[in-house]
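Reply to dn_fold:

You asked what the input looked like. This is it:
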Amino acid sequence: MSSRYGRFMGDVDAYQQAEEEVEQARDEKRREAKAVLAADLAAEPVKPTAAHTRSSAELPLGLIKTTSNMRTGELPDIQGLAISIREVGLISPLLVRLTAEGDYRLVAGRRRLAALVLVHDSNPEALVRCEVIDSDTDEAEAWILMLTENLQREDPPPLQVARGLRAALRLDPT
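and this is what came back:
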């Protein structure tokens, strides 16, 4: 009985050691992945988009214009978003860019803008909270901001992502 017990304990010890080695290997992979992420964050950005200044503003709804967007078709659950905005307010401001014509082009927040139109019953004088990106932000950077917001908030269809990437690359192929 003693030899069977010893063999059993040897199997348990081997199993425990194997589990510890697997966990050490996983820890090492996590450390390596964390180091890669830290290096990515420490690297110089390809474009200085994040460094451009933004200012807060309350703009009349009628001054905010939309242009082509990577999204197409129906905007889901606008009514629900409008009710939420009416009840708790606009949590994330619209991101806009001043145009040469003096109005503002929507960069990010197409669903929010559609909901705000419902909330304010299409009143062009209603004031809307916005972040205005500075004029140093070029058209390609504006497309990248739009694309990034759409990818962060939802899982758009691949064709819409391709349209957004194609537009950004057309404007700045680097």
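Residues 2-42 form the longest helix (41 residues).
Hope that clears it up.
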